[in-house]
Amino acid sequence: MLKSLRILPKVRDSWSYAYVEYCRVEQDDKSVALHNERGKIPVPCSTLNLLMLGPGTSITHAAVKTIAENGCSLAWTGEGGVRYYAQGLGETRDSRRLLKQAYLCTHSALRMAVVRRMYEFRFPEPLDPGLTIQQIRGHEGVRVREAYAEAARKTDIPWSGRNYKQQSWNDADPINRALSSASSCLYGVCQAAVVAAGYSTALGFVHTGKMLSFVYDIADLYKAEITIPLAFQAVADRPSNLESHVRKACRDHFHKHRLLKRIVEDIDRLFDIDPAKFAGGQQLLDDNDAAPGGLWDPEAGAVNGGINWSDTVQEV
Length: 316
What we know:
The chain contains 10 helices and 10 strands. The chain has helices spanning about 60-70, 95-105, 110-120, 135-155, 175-195, 215-220, 225-235, 240-255, 260-270, 275-280, and strands spanning about 15-20, 25-30, 30-35, 40-45, 50-55, 55-60, 75, 85, 295, 300-305. The chain is flat and about 55 Å long.
């Protein structure tokens, strides 16, 4: 068992993630192993950031405990890691990323700076600093419409605009169903990345008011590049089961281009995270990883917990 989180390897030195399906995960000495018809496959969970459990997977209580103690996140996903259902304890025991996100999200000027970065992320050229948020949204609308039109031209698929109602799925044309299926896959991967990195899915910047607002923010960064072309190509392939074909195409693309790892790096870049500077020079990781952490103070920021503060009260 870890005695101190300071001995954990740096995330950049670890494996990003592993996906498994149709197997049983059991404890194996101080690590875990996968068991299937081919035998036993050891999994070095101490150097793994995220273990994604796909369909047909079972896991023992001892294996979950071992994985958690080794600082590896667990996520229950759909086939190929495309859909995200639930997650277990992650590697980080401090909340610096979540606190940074909340700080940026709740200060108007800082939130606007992040929103501008999110829009700039999607454009090849810098945005004029004098543009208002409404003008930027107008530019973004033009960019997305051009992405749809370009994909339609390349695949020779008729395109009359985005039109989809969840209650009338079968009434939508094939390309709109394909776009919705691809977006759903992208949302799942983005949610897995957001949670695994220690951010909140609810604290959005562009989107707001939903438990997945931040997921929608991040997914929008990749739609024109990834899911729109994939959806149009899927319709052009004329598969017998369009939705299944789209999900598999997304799964293969996400895996090939290591999208999960890219998402975490892109979020950190958008937030320009500097943990040491943000911590104000304080050490956020404790010797005791079971300790509840510091106490909020309106003047000092964070003070040490476990102190009898009644001894510090001065008589007046």
